[in-house]
Design a protein that fits this description.
Arc Repressor Mutant, subunit A; Rossmann fold; 17 strands; 4 domains; globular; hydrolase; isomerase; seven-stranded parallel β-sheet
Length: about 625
Amino acid sequence: MLEDLPSQPARTQAPALTASAPGHDDPSPAHRILEHVFGYPAFRGEQQAIVEHVAAGGDALVLMPTGGGKSLCYQIPALLRTGTAIVVSPLIALMQDQVSALVEAGVNAAFLNSSLDMERARAVERALWDGTLELLYVAPERLMTPRFLDQLDHLRDTGRLALFAIDEAHCVSQWGHDFRPEYLQLSILPERYPSIPRIALTATADRQTREEIAERLNLRHARRFVSSFDRPNIRYTIVDKDDARRQLLAFIREECPSEAGIVYCLSRRKVEETAAWLQEQGLNALPYHAGMTQETRAEHQTRFLREDGLIMVATIAFGMGIDKPDVRFVAHLDLPRSIEGYYQETGRAGRDGLPAQAWMAWGAQDVVQQRRMIDESEANEEFKRLARNRLDVLVGLVEATTCRRQHLLAYFGEESGPCGNCDNCLNPPQTWDATEAARKALSCVYRTGQRYGAGHLIDVLRGELTDKVIERGHQDITTFGIGSELDEKRWRTLFRQLVAREFVAVDHERYNALRLTDAARPLLRGEAEFHLRLERERSRSRAKRRSAAHLEIPDGIPTTLFDRLRAWRFATAKERNVPAYVVFQDATLREIAITRPRTLTELGRISGVGDRKLEHYGAAILELVTEAG
């Protein structure tokens, strides 16, 4: 790593930044770095304001969706300020990817973690001490060691400590799904280094989590930058479980064939079984969960990052900080724990801005299982209450008959209109008034003594004279046969929804018997209505038309050049021992395939082609374009 660091000219210092448009005769230092180092023609959203604020010495709390360009918000200030920027990152994979990309762009960057042997770690420490590094990535555990703090003291005393960037800052939240207790120690940074600016960044945080980040990291007075949480390139689709594996396979084959994706499962066992089953179906899939050895996890993660079209089947142990931009889909075979978790996990798709899919299969049993896990956990009652509330909000999302994105963004306090890019917008569901049927079901639960599961209750409602019905004498109660107009499948759907909306609860101590809750009373008294969606089959031909949409290459432009560029990129990345997207992202190759540049100057205008990459790869790319005719 360190021996591969390129030589860099002295960077331009910018004590006072000025805003100027890209292409201006006298662009600001920040714009010059953006264009010539990273290859982008213009800042997006609030990137410029964040860069200028932090580069000038201000603290910042940044909430920006995955793929929104958070890294540039501290990388550019790091190159503008004197000294070394310390980036706190929770995962080894994230550090390695970020450093590989920076080195490819010509930046003196390194990481310090347990993957390095002693000799390489000492080399990084020497470079840090000598002040030759521009960015150094470390885990919070290492940063807080006396040895490392002594090194930081040395940098501070010699005026060579540029800034602190705390990535994945939501890890400090004890209510969150990615809590890392080591992050709590980072509150000492402003006490020990009060004059050094700090920037904390996260892609997911509701209002409560934002306040917790500000409080625990001592960033109460930091300027806050909250970008839109909308990811318009992601299509959200949620289906009722009906042989979920087969549903998943159909989704992958019809909409994302030969594409990289992540499939999330709740348990380690389900991860193993699902990965094996997908392999049997001819798909390139690997498992990943915390129960595997560290070596196996590292091997599978490396393959996922560096191979095209690989599917990772994982628990939530996989994904945070994964910097792979061309993940075309994220699928859930189990209900996530919260909307925050769902948003962050689905946000790992389409980081390159090209169309991507977020697909989930769910059932009422998922809700029952999640509630049971909450109830049986050793957490305090306050934590359980918040966990239940967050689960309820997620159930509201999956049950929604209106725009999914509106529900998702509303959770983060953002108003929006119908998106036109979710299942409910594209194929509005039909609903039916199930109020009377729901009352019949609730009455049956009551008349049978609240002692039976859905299967027996359906037999009673449909008037089935089973042995169990006769043995219990339920053919003589008033609800026997009053629901014969609905088939078994419709009744099961209704009972699932009654459970999901908490009109009835599952008694795990009594063989999953159903019992009424207080919420059932208004419905039984005729004071509330109950509506359900009518599921209908989606057009297979429509799905197929969408499956290759992410290429977005106009008619008349052959995809063969794009394919040849990807093949060249794969070989180049393998030779340099870096992930393919570190060389160039799909979005950059797509633009090359469309514009077909003939000169280095034309190639240099394409987004993602910085000076260093133009120098290293320009001739090879132009040759491929010329050969394509």
